[in-house]
Amino acid sequence: MTTATSPLSPPPATSSRRLRVAILYQLPESWANVRSLWDAMLDDPEVEPIVVLLPFEHQDYQWNRENAAAQLDALGVPWQAWDEIDPAKAGFDAVLYTSPYDETRPAAYRFAALSRHVRFTAYIPYGLEVGGGSVNLFHQYGQPVNLHASAVFVRSESARQMYARHCASGAGHVVVSGHPRMDAMSRLDDFEVDPALLAQIGPRKAVLWNAHFSFDADQWSTFDQLTMPILEHFAVRPDLALLFRPHPLLWKKLVNLGIYDEAGVVALRAELQALGVVIDERADHRHAFAASSALMTDAGSFLMEYFVTGKPVLYLANPHGLGLNEEGRAVSRYYDVAADAGAVGAFLDSLENRPSDELSRRRAAIPDFFAGFDGGAGRRVLEHLKTRLAA
After folding, report:
1. Domains and CATH numbers, the chain
2. Radius of gyration for the alpha carbons in the chain, expressed in angstroms and rounded
3. Is the CB of residue 353 less than 8 Å from the CB of residue 320?
């Protein structure tokens, strides 16, 4: 694996050199957001792409350097660690952020510090934002990278309008490129699912269940309210497999809130698996998307992203939480909604007899939520970046 062992050297002083474009990688799940852009940069002789491995410093996440490095190595992606580089001397022409939250990064890579040394800064949203509440709107649209990046690349005109309404800097720097995350989703029918996952599901129809970690404050999660009813519903429906994909922060959040200790989380996972629940924590969520026939989800990115599959979706609404923003409400109009056990059961029963126009209505509405859903968003991001750097 081509991993650097010495600090990144500065570029030669020549106008003909390739553009050095750095992707700041913090979480394995974030690679989906830049995968097609990375591929486009590799194919471009004018660009030298660089992945910088950074820690993700968050109280509800246990980041591990060795695991993060192994994930990139498994993808065949060469990388540099943050502490092997002096970002002030690295000669980056552009830096792409995959998370808006400065407090999760080492000080030298926070926006105010790094942007002093870079001609072009960009943000590719880490999630497809659907959560409501004024505090969350600030989290999603009021961070330094949201406010001051040279460009923010978004999935649709409606997503750009969210910046116009909720970002103090407006939407003048927001580019409707389509989201690179969705490039792979445009080819989901051709994706090869991990045989191990298919073996776990067997002949059953898999229903993907995505649980958020926000039990306190925002209260988007229904994990504490609906887990037992969901398990009971699947226990009497042996033709269905429950494919559980928790938010990456869920397990640690349970510990931090004192709901379980570390041993308790281990026991909980074992109990779920003993009940026949298939737990999927692969970095690449396409396995779960392709293998499943329907989705049940709290407020989160999957509520938006799964839309393009055309498969049935049940939005699990926490009646005590902050609910959805404008975009979340718009997409959920195409879905079933449940806030109690009965509605979950009704959704599962409906899987054998869905509305005849469900798929056609969803496909017709894809442009409302995803501009240029054609596999080319990564290339469009790169072309915008190159144009701006050439100016």
Report:
1. 19-185+373-390 (3.40.50.2000), 188-365 (3.40.50.2000)
2. 21
3. no
pTM (2 d.p.):
0.90
Strand partners of residue 198? none
The two three-digit tokens of residue 74, written as one number: 């498994």
Cα–Cα distance list, 356 to 310, 351, 360 (Å): 12, 12, 8
CA distance 363 to 370: 11
Rounded CA separation 38/202 (Å): 34
Model pLDDT, residue 29: 84
| Closest CA relative to residue 128, chosen from 311, 283, 297 | 297
| Rounded Cα distance, 73 and 1, in Å | 6
Q: In this structure, is the dihedral angle defined by the CA atoms of residues 77, 81, 82 and 84, taken in order, positive or negative?
A: negative
Cα dist from 288 to 64, 145, 146, whole Å: 24, 31, 30
Query: What is the per-residue pLDDT for 278?
Result: 98
Residues of the chain falling short of pLDDT 70: 1-16, 217-218
- For residue 109, report the phi and psi dihedrals to the nearest 5 degrees: -110, 5
Q: Is 21 in contact with 121 (CB distance < 8 Å)?
A: no
pLDDT at 71: 92
The C-alpha atoms of residue 379 and residue 40 are separated, in whole angstroms, by 6
Instruction: Give Cβ neighbours of residue 52 (< 8 Å, ≥ 6 apart).
Output: 22, 23, 24, 25, 79, 80, 81, 82, 85, 109
**Whole-number Å distance between alpha carbons of 367 and 39:** 24
Cα–Cα distance list, 39 to 32, 36, 92, 376, 391 (Å):
12, 5, 19, 11, 24
Q: Supply 207's token pair.
A: 């229903």
Task: From 217, 220, 230, select the one nearest 328 (Cα to Cα).
Answer: 220
C-alpha 178 chain-centroid distance: 14
Query: Quick one: tokens of 98?
Result: 């995959």
DSSP of 286-314, one letter per residue? HHHHHH-SEEEE-SSHHHHHGGGG---EE
